[in-house]
Amino acid sequence: MGVQLSILAQSSPSIGIFSYIDVLEDVHYIALLNSSRFLKTCKAVDPNGEIIIKVFVKPREGYSLTSTVETLNKESMLLSQLPNVLNYSKIIESNRAGYLIRQHLRRNLYDRLSSRPYLHEIESKFIAFQLLQALNDIHNLDIVHTDIKTENIMVNSWNWIALTDFAAHVKPIYLPEDNPGEFSFYFDTSKRRNCYIAPERFNTQLYNDSEKRYEPSKEMDIFSAGCCIAELFSEGIPIFNLSQLFKYKTQEYDVNEYLNEHFSENKELKELIMDMIQLDPTRRLSTLQLLEKYRGTFFPDYFYTFTYDYFRTLASLVTSIPNTGSLTEKCLLEDKQNVCNNSLLKVYDDFSSICASLNFPIITDKPKQAKDKLQPNVFSSEHIKIGHNTFVQLKSFTSYKSIQPVEEECALLFISYLSRILRNLTSSSNKIKCLELLAAFSQFISDDNKIDRVIPYYETCFEDENNSMIQALSLQCTTQVLSAVEQVNKLNENVFMDYLLPRIKRLLNRSKEHLYVRMVLANLVGNFVSLVSKFREISLMSRLNSNEQDNDESILTNNKYNGRLMQQMEEIIISLLTDSSVWVKISLLDNVLSLCKYLGKEKTNDIILSHLITYLNDRNPMLRMALVEAISGISILLGPVTLEQYILPLLIQTLTDSEELVVTATLETLHDLCKTGLVNQINAFTVANEISPLLLHPNYSIRQFSLLTLFEISQQLSKPDLYCNLYPIIKPYFGFEVEFELDVMLDSCKTPISRTIFNLLCSWSLRASNSLFWKQVMSKEVDAFGKPTSTFITRDYIPKNYGLTNNTLRSSKAMDEHPNGFVRLFDNSEIPLTTEDKLWIDKFKTLGMKDTDLWKLLCLRSYILRTKNKHNEKSQLGLHEIDENLDKKYSSIGIANVMPHNVFYDIKFIEQEETDSEELPLSENDTQKQLMEHSLLPKESVPTIVNMNGSLILRNKPSAITTPNLRNIYVQLEPNRTHNQVHNPYSPRRFDDRSFPIPEYVVSNSYEGDVESIEQFLKSIDISPTLSDYKEFGIISNAIKKDGRSLISLKGKSICTLSTNIRNLIVSICTSSGSRNPYLVTGSLQGVISVYSMRNIVNGEDYEPALFFNCKATLTNMIMLQGFDTFVVATTDGFVKFFRILQYDPLQENRQSTYTKEIRSFHVSGESNKSGPNGAMDGEEHVTKMEEYIADDKAYLICLTNRSRLFNFDIRRLDDMNFINIPASHGGITTFCTNKESNVLIIGTTKGIIDIWDLRLNILVNSWAFDNNCIIKEIHLMTQLGKNMILILGGSSSGVLSVWNYAKTQCRLIVALPERTPSIENFQPITKRLENVKYNSGNLNSIVSTVHTQGTTIIFSNNETSDMFMLDLSNTNHSKVLFGPNKSEYIFGGRKGTINTTIVSIQRVSSTTETTSSRKNTSNTGNMVTTIETVQRQDKLYLLVGDSLGIINIYD
What we know:
Subcellular location: Endosome membrane; Golgi apparatus, trans-Golgi network membrane
Pfam families: Pkinase, VPS15-like_hel
Largest sheet: 6 strands, mixed
Helix content: 25-40%
Main location: membrane
Oligomer: single chain
Radius of gyration: 48 Å
Keywords: ATP-binding, Autophagy, Endosome, Kinase, Nucleotide-binding, Repeat, Serine/threonine-protein kinase, Transferase, WD repeat
Catalytic activity: L-seryl-[protein] + ATP = O-phospho-L-seryl-[protein] + ADP + H(+); L-threonyl-[protein] + ATP = O-phospho-L-threonyl-[protein] + ADP + H(+)
């Protein structure tokens, strides 16, 4: 077919080639790429990108290419599935031409051989290996290429090849031997005259035989591939041109000359090429034979086992191989970006397996850092973190060179791939991973390749101005990679001067708004200067080893280079030293020693030290502390002269810094300097004199480092200097004779002053106005640094300056009247005091300071004054900067000498006159006093019960008792004189209808000034007493916190039954939390409140209530204030009343007295203490549920009304009433609970919707429903199951009880009752269109009416079977049936419904018939459990169960 086309093809089209392209749909012509006469190759674009179009212009109209198109389509369909093949994506025939269209790739193998970076040997081998694999794949499909040449082997940026332009059905198989023009017409499109065609294809006879169709052989492709491999390894020099091939065919050209010239040292390569270009086709090895023969010799074994397959997988991701049956795969730009990201993540996740497959000896131990010190250079490390827990330690190339894959630099294949990926990544996190992988793989390539192949890609990231993290990490990785370099060639020895430093400087100038980048650069600049020195030393050593002689010109050039290099480094260092950010300066100080070493002593003094000194005046203590920590190393580098003249005076000055952390760091630095011996004796004594008073400082670290410094000074001195000079300085601060051993000095140090006294001393120094205590006079002496000194005045100073003699002063009457007019120092010198000073001294004594310790204040005076002065300087400095931006009217305000003051508030309750002698006692002592008065009555007034074998005998006459057990029957016994005072349940002492008045209080503060604005500000602050400050509520000091683990001890054994013999539904039971003598309070539907003593009930002494009270209205709810002897009652008349209960047993016998008083009364209308029960009629709005919300500064009662309104009010003052507006579309509110830690209110509604309300912001946070939207009956907080866990009773008819995480809106646990199997799908939260949820009238009262929670355990009753269950939600093994007719017929189990949800099931083991009959028997009783509560007495727990018949059962 090729012969026919060649005869018919036009040598030049009659019209422009672009006219043939424009007829194609969605294709736009760009340029003509070659001047071939057979197929015109054009570049164009379509919606998928750039394409190549090969155009065959038809010689005449009506010429058909149908058979050719069909053949090419079949071939392209087969080739489309191969990753190393680029097939024709479209094959089109028009009236005027035929078109072969494929994707455009920018570079072929011929172009790649002349491009930088030049191919490494391992890369060339991998390309040759791919070529053989590609040939093997196409030959297995019985396809022959017939036109393999370097121009038709496309190479992408990571050296993955693709064979393209298959010509078996387009170009002729054979060519004439006597007509080179035919070769040029078909195959020499580049006009290079290079020939890759097999010799046997030049056959004139077969070429002229156009009647017979000849098929190409696979050996022809083997020959062409061999020519390409030879050109590949000879760096672009072809093995044959056309004339050489003809000579080779006639055996006139010896190919060994070419092989020996270019591959003299590579025997395997010569053999490989010869096996492929044998003149006899039958002697050429197939691709499979070649791959097998040269495995492990020329081609590394890891090409076969891992590398090729892994890169083939990556290529399949990147090149978007089409699905079977398609020629192309359409891919959007967004899809390509996702492919790059996914490819990078695959390499990142597979890093460990890659290294293991290639025998890369990575060290993955986590870097160990010293515990006592932080890492000095936080951004420079020898480790790279890959993944979550893999830390790769970076090593030099020479340390791994003995390993074959490392020696062959196989890692270059992955680095080329990652370099290509880096430029196309869009995600910052993926770019970071790519940079880390480049650094990790770089340790397995040579030093030259590190600089040539890796560093340029890091430098391109410097230009990523939109992402400071990328810029900073590229800086860090650059130092890590270059730190592993040990050899530098001549081309790279100037890499810093010509390449790196200009880009770093440009990065620094562009990162003015990126603080993090400047911080990282400041921290790494020390590493860069170290690397600069290292590269210069390597270059110098390489010259010495090569015996190169430096002439004058080279020395001058080298000096100029070093000068320019130093200048560039100085500009970067000065820019960082003068940066506006404190944190950049701190980062620079972490690695400042490297800079000092590089610059030398002279420039360090001029550049570094001159700037660092100014840091001590900075207001940020972190910078001052960082400088002090770094200065010791600089001192050692610069020597003792600089230390004595500049550094040591600054350190002494810094000892009085206002920040104690800075002082501690300064002492540590002085300790290090003294330990090195750089501090001479004279300066050592000065240091000792300055730091000795700090032994009295309240800061532990300051005292310890002061002592350590003194100890180090003592170790440097001789015996005479030690005891003649140092000993007198430090002696006053030790309790006994000092022995200069560290342990002895630690034990003998005198007790320092407390922090309170120290703060008061500082306050005195700031506020002193007329004081001799702080008075200083200048001295003529100078210190060791040449500065004038000052001394405090003593008693001797007064007669010398005022002409008084000591005798006259001593005999003065004033001194006799004021014996404390002086304070004695440890050297017996006396310090005079003014009246103001004496007042301050009295304050110290009030704080517990003894007269014998006042000398400690004198010793610290100098330190305190200098600290105050430095503090004032910094305050004035900061104020000056602020004043520049203020108006002129505020410019005169100054706070120079003002210290912050603590103002304390005090609350005092106003005592009220007792108008009623029977008023409630407020304190426990008053209660005991009044009750003891009753205990003095004759014993016969209280009958004693004696147990006589089961009979009750009264030793004395009983009192008259009125009992309401039978409402219409009263039993009147003989009364006595104490009847009305003690035993009448309706007496005023028992229960007074009069409300207790709310105590008033006065708030005062400790402010002693007279500034009106401050007084007004202090008064504006709302200060309120806590609830525990109100004594009438009766705080319980020994309150017991209920724990779910104690429920395990419950056995379900009945102790007793409390009954009023009247069918009266028990609304609520509440119990006290006191451990000594707890009591329980019950409330019935008819409004009767009963108070029982648990001691009497447990001991079997009395089952009657100690107190009755009729609320005269229907009772709706009752709760106990936790931690108080107060319970709260809500009734239908709209009142919420607070009652206090007091119990006392004056005779320590079995009788006790119970006293109750109403202490608060609140009406839902917002009026407190509204008189009379007729304030609101039944049927109006009233409270149905309550919950207390008591914290340190809050005491609220949250109430729910019958009109579905939620409000809260302050329990203490009965004010601050706030309403919470819940959406009406969510249904009526049925229940709620609060999470005090999170300030969250959880609400349940009649539509089965749960609302989460933020009490701080007063907003609705979240809402959801589930299953069939049954009414939410109860919600309980279950914090011990996990944070944000709640138990919901209701919401579903299949799973009545469920546990949810309200923050994540996830169901975590479902309780499945017998004969009920809840579905997990029903417990998926419904969060949308909740306003459309309809009310579900299904009634759940017949199953579970209430539930009691404690810890992780819940207790509830199945009203259908009358069985009481105790279920441990964290461990079902602890679950059991406490009591019931079917106690032994249940089993408990748990299973995982989903990953997050557990189903706890309760199953019956009895038959269905028994279950049905049992249910019928129990359902006819008409009774159900209404309330469940527990009470603990003397480490034993009791269960209280109230039902609708008015019966309370007690179990242990």
